């Protein structure tokens, strides 16, 4: 053991050990930092604007003005001659930025839809479980009511008892008719 420690002390210096209970110090970054949520919201706003009729109208107006200016203006004021290569470049640049922004907005919407569907699925599962529970409770109440005396059952039992008593009176006439004393009761 002592030889191992001596070997460790003689060997090259170790890299500093980082403590796991403390955060690392921040590093300088080459790329700028940005908030992904803010960028996502901005991309959704741009994508919503690109999908409107207002954008198409403005884009058409800009293209018509561009073409008319570069055809009708004096030669020294024209900035894009007839094949309108600069206009093509600008439209390509706009399309190259629009497509990823639209895809980013669609991905964010897909994520929101996925979360909403998951929540709906869980809510449906809870509703089904509640419905099954209530169905079992109603069935048990119905079974319990089968054993409970209802008003109709009590009425029919009382009617049967009255009939039975009337039959007994017919078979055994009451003792009053024979002149019994009131005090014998």
TrEMBL record:
Segments spanning the bilayer are 55-72, 84-104
> Pfam families from the entry?
DUF1003
Tell me the keywords, alphabetical order.
Membrane, Transmembrane, Transmembrane helix
Q: Determine the domain of life of the protein's source.
A: Bacteria
Q: Where is the composition biased (Basic and acidic residues)?
A: 1-24
Give the range the annotation lists for the signal sequence.
none
Keyword Heme carried by entry: no
* Record region (Disordered): 1-28
Name of the protein in its database record? DUF1003 domain-containing protein
């Amino acid at each position: 053991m002592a030889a191992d420690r001596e070997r460790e002390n003689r060997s090259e210096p170790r890299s500093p050990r980082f403590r796991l209970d403390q955060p690392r110090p921040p590093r300088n970054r080459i790329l700028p930092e940005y908030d992904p949520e803010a960028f996502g919201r901005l991309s959704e706003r741009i994508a919503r604007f690109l999908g409107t009729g207002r954008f198409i109208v403005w884009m058409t107006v800009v293209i018509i003005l561009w073409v008319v200016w570069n055809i009708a203006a004096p030669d020294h004021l024209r900035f894009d001659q007839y094949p309108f290569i600069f206009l093509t470049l600008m439209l390509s640049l706009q399309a190259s930025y629009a497509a990823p922004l639209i895809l980013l907005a669609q991905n964010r919407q897909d994520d929101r839809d996925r979360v909403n569907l998951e929540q709906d699925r869980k809510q449906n599962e809870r509703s089904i479980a509640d419905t099954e529970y209530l169905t079992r409770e109603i069935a048990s109440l119905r079974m319990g009511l089968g054993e409970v005396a209802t008003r109709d059952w009590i009425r029919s039992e009382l009617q049967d008892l009255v009939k039975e008593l009337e039959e007994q009176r017919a078979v055994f006439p009451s003792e009053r008719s024979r002149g019994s004393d009131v005090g014998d009761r």
